[in-house]
Structure formats: structure tokens, C-alpha cells
């Protein structure tokens, strides 16, 4: 089953391009589910039909749904939230403030993807096309399962020990009951499922943008962050291109957009760049959407396999000074000053433009020390040499 997620800045045409792609794919005889996880649901408006939180057939092989993000969030989070609110309340934080503090940023969006995971597991679909929330939300969301996994692996065991050992010493602090621990574990399992789905080789992301400098700048940052978290971009969609000719106003826009389009092509040299013209009317309803889809993909398969190739790669590269390993990670568009690298136990902590990823080091690198790092050709290369204290001596 092929899973394609559409993301990009607000208003660039994510919903329209996702719907156009799904309409085209359904027209080609596939069973497709189109899902909106953006709390600002506009998919129903684009399709010109009402949608619910369960898949409903729109036409032919095309079904659609919009995830009730709030309900999903309440389901998974309410037990934990109750506990945290209680805890904070005892610490002197007012109930209102405590409730504000326990809204885990990004959780709503990531939990929306659990609905996609369920649909993927149902085996009903040849393809699922997801209309995601705007860039920033989506990125936070994609980082969450990894971050939570890290906390789960380190904090939950500690916590369990604490409950058993130190519990009685903690006095007035309410220890989380089994219900809370269970809720955390369940949440973790759900998030791991989402992560597995996103990491799957049949999953990829399409970045939608318009031919404007500000939008392109954000798209480039998005591409970096997606790579940072190991997510595969399979193509770029440039929407709302104004055809040249006619009056000077139109001609000026067409020229300006062409200059940006050249920048887009230079920015994403390895990816297909698809184009959609600015239509004279809002593309609403299946016929209009399918027409956009046909223009977008031409004779290409909209479900073509995403580009292969490892986003993270480790290789042995001994030199004159002895044993040496090189870990490299794709980081297109990253600039040196915005990249920070630190070693924390068995993890490499990589910060790029405010986003942080923990990279679990493979066994061989855990027994090494970081000896240097550099950025070139859109990849960060980290050099490791054996740690004399841990490396078995010959
Ligand atoms: N190529 C296009 N031509 C004309 N109108 C478009 C085009 N793409 C999108 N629109 C319109 O622009 C608005 C925003 O598009 P939408 O797909 O909802 O963006 P997003 O999901 O990124 O917020 C909608 O009214 C949509 O119908
Ligand atoms: Mg939208």
C-alpha cells in the first residue's frame, strides 16, 4: 500500500493538490482513501461534499474522511492530562493554567495520524493520500514519536523503579496509578505505530509550494527538517503558476514566477518538480480536481515508488591514522551555522534550525569518539574513531 502525505505552508494548495492526486489515482482504477488530518478541515469544501470521521465513498474508487483530531486527542490524552493537572494543581498551579500546560504541543496532529495508521492496517486501500496540517505543525508532529520513544525508554523504567523504591518517600506527590502508566504505554505504542508507518519504504512526502521567495525559503527549511527526521520527500509541487501573455500585470507575475521556478529547480535538483497553473476559478469538485491531477502528473504514475537511497548511512573508511567510520545524513539546504552536533551517551543529538533529532548510534559507533564533522553536497558527515577505552585492542 502506497502512502503519500502532502504538506507545505498554509494556503499554498495542499488540500487541492492532495485531492487532485487522489482523484486522478482513483480514476486510474485504484482504491484510494483521501484523509485530512488538518484541524482546519477544508477537504470537504474542495470535494464539494460533506465528510465524516470514517471513510465514505465519494465517487468510484475514491473514499474520503477527515480525522476528528480533538476526539482522538481526548481519547488518548485525557487520563494523562487528569493526572498532570492534579500534579500541577498540588504544586500551586491554578487549574486553568495547569490545563493549558498539559496540552502537549503537536500531540493532536500526531494522534490524527493514528487514524491513518488504522486505515493502512485495514488492508482496504491501494493508496492513502493525506492532506496534512501546514508545515510547522507537521514537522513538530513528525518529531514526536522519536522524542517520545527516547523519553519512554529512559524515563518510564526509572519511573517504575521510583514507584517501587522511592515511592513512599515522596510524601504528598500523588504517584501515577496503573491507569496512568497504562495510558502512557498505550500512547507510546500508538506513536510507535505511526512512526513505523512513516518510516516505511512505501511512504513519502510531497511538498507543495507557490513560486514566491518567502514560500520557497520555508519549503527549503521543511526539506531539511524532513530529512533530519528521516522522512522521504518524493517530489515538489509548484502551484498557482500564472500563464504569461496578456496584460503587463500578468506578464510581470509570469516573469517573477519563472525566476522563482528556476530557484525551485536549483533547490531540488534530484526531485521531480510538478506544476499546476492558477485556474480561473477555485477547483472544487471531482472533475475540476481530476483535471488538475492530469496536468500535474502527465504520463507519470502518481503512485510511483519513492526514491530509494539511505537518508542515514554508516560506512567504514580507514585511513593512515587507523580505523575510521563515517556516518552521513542527508541534510539538504542546511547551513553550517544552523547545525549543532553533540554526543549524549549512545545517541548523537543533532540540532538543525531549531529542530532536534536523537540518532541512536549503531553498536560499532558507540565504541567510537566523534573526531570531526562537516557539511558538503547536502549531507552532514560525522567522522568517528575508536575510543581507546572501549575498543578491543589487537
Ligand atoms: N491551482 C489553483 N488554481 C486556482 N485556485 C486554487 C489553486 N490551488 C488552490 N486554489 C484555491 O486556493 C485556496 C487554498 O487552497 P487549499 O488547497 O485549500 O490550500 P491549503 O490546503 O494549502 O491551505 C482554495 O480556495 C483553493 O480552491
Ligand atoms: Mg488545507
Overall description:
The protein has 394 residues and is an alpha/beta fold. The protein has 2 domains: 2-69 and 106-297, P-loop containing nucleotide triphosphate hydrolases (Rossmann fold); 312-386, Immunoglobulin-like (Sandwich), CATH 2.60.40. Helices cover 43% and strands 24% of the residues. It has 11 helices and 15 strands. It has an 8-stranded mixed β-sheet with strand order 3-4-2-5-1-6-7-8, with helices on both faces. A hairpin with a 2-residue loop joins strand 12 (347-352) and strand 13. Helix 3 (69-90) crosses helix 5. It is globular. The mean pLDDT is 85. Adenosine-5'-diphosphate (ADP) binds next to helix 1 and strand 7. The site of adenosine-5'-diphosphate has 16 residues, from helix 1 and strand 7.
List keywords for this structure.
394 residues; alpha/beta; Rossmann fold; Immunoglobulin-like; 2 domains; 4-stranded antiparallel beta sheet; 11 helices; 43% helix; 24% strand; globular; binds adenosine-5'-diphosphate; binds magnesium ion
Amino acid at each position: 500500500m502506497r502512502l503519500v502525505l502532502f504538506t507545505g505552508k498554509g494556503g499554498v494548495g495542499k488540500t487541492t493538490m492532495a485531492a487532485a492526486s487522489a482523484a486522478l489515482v482513483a480514476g486510474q482504477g485504484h482504491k484510494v482513501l483521501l484523509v485530512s488530518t488538518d484541524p482546519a478541515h477544508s477537504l470537504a469544501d474542495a470535494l464539494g461534499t460533506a465528510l465524516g470521521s470514517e471513510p465514505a465513498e465519494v465517487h468510484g474508487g475514491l473514499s474520503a474522511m477527515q480525522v476528528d483530531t480533538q476526539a482522538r486527542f481526548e481519547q488518548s490524552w485525557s487520563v494523562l492530562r487528569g493526572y498532570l493537572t492534579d500534579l500541577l494543581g498540588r504544586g500551586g498551579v491554578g487549574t486553568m493554567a495547569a490545563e493549558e500546560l498539559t496540552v502537549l504541543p503537536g500531540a493532536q496532529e500526531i494522534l490524527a495520524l493514528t487514524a491513518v495508521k488504522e486505515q493502512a492496517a485495514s488492508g482496504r486501500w491501494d493508496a492513502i493520500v493525506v492532506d496534512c496540517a501546514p508545515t510547522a505543525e507537521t514537522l513538530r508532529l513528525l518529531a514526536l514519536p522519536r522524542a517520545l520513544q527516547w523519553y519512554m525508554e529512559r524515563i518510564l523504567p526509572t519511573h517504575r523503579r521510583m514507584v517501587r523504591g522511592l515511592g513512599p518517600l515522596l510524601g504528598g506527590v500523588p504517584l501515577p496509578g496503573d491507569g496512568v502508566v497504562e495510558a502512557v504505554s498505550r500512547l507510546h505504542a500508538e506513536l510507535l505505530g505511526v512512526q513505523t508507518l512513516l518510516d516505511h519504504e512505501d511512504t513519502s512526502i510531497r511538498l507543495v509550494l507557490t513560486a514566491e521567495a518567502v514560500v520557497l525559503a520555508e519549503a527549503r527549511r521543511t526539506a531539511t527538517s524532513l530529512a533530519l527526521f528521516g522522512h522521504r520527500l518524493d517530489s515538489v509541487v509548484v502551484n498557482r503558476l500564472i500563464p504569461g501573455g496578456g496584460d503587463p500585470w500578468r506578464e510581470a507575475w509570469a516573469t517573477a514566477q519563472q525566476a522563482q521556478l528556476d530557484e525551485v529547480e536549483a533547490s531540488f535538483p534530484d526531485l521531480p518538480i510538478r506544476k499546476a497553473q492558477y485556474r480561473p476559478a477555485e477547483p472544487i469538485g471531482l472533475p475540476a480536481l481530476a483535471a488538475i491531477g492530469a496536468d500535474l502528473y502527465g504520463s507519470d504514475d502518481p503512485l510511483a515508488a519513492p526514491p530509494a537511497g539511505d537518508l542515514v548511512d554508516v560506512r567504514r573508511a580507514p585511513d593512515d591514522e587507523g580505523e575510521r567510520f563515517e556516518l552521513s545524513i542527508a541534510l539538504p539546504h542546511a547551513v553550517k551555522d544552523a547545525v549543532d552536533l553533540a554526543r549524549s551517551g549512545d545517541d548523537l543529538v543533532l540540532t538543525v534550525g531549531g529542530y532536534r533529532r536523537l540518532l541512536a548510534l549503531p553498536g560499532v559507533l558507540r565504541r567510537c569518539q566523534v573526531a570531526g564533522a562537516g557539511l558538503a553536497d547536502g549531507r552532514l558527515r560525522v567522522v568517528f574513531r575508536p575510543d581507546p577505552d572501549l575498543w578491543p585492542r589487537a
